[in-house]
Amino acid sequence: MKYISIFCGSSSGNDKIFAEQAVLLGRVIARKGFGIVYGGAHVGLMGEVANGALSEGGEVIGVIPAFLKKKELEHTQLTKIHIVETMHERKALMNELCDAVIALPGGYGTLDELFEMLTWAQLSLHKKPIGLFNIDGYYDALAEMSAKMIEKGFLKEEYKDLLLIDDDIERLLYRMGTYVPLPNEKWFKT
After folding, report:
1. What pTM was computed for the model?
2. What is the CATH number of the domain that holds 96?
3. What domain range is 145 assigned to?
4. What is the count of structural domains for the chain?
């Protein structure tokens, strides 16, 4: 892994633990020599992760749609910024620039980004590790939903391993670094 795409909220949530852990994640990633690719904003958990990495001298690349830049959300201290036209272009470029993905707490936008990367992995469009930083149990219900999808026959058991869920940064990064992609070259059985 060289670059990790971070998907997370443009707000900080209502508990300081989310911002504290986002800053810490950025710092740890930078200390380990990885670069960050993220949504390019200075607000919310997005800004916290970027600032954490920058405080350690880390490389931080932003990808922001022009309409959000116009709203003055762009982080102006980044290593590099890419301006794109649409949210889809943002996700596609972030995928192109990264070797791995971590999602932190966030809202619909964060889930959209996470699920697109999971879907692409399920379809073997990429083989990147996808981590879910489960701060304060934020994603426990998502883990339960994944188990329900398997139980009800809507998700194959092996696809559960496409999402590495952990509440410890070091352990999550270790698991991502040792991730072995599924040998999933054929989606349907013949």
Report:
1. 0.94
2. 3.40.50.450
3. 30-177
4. 1
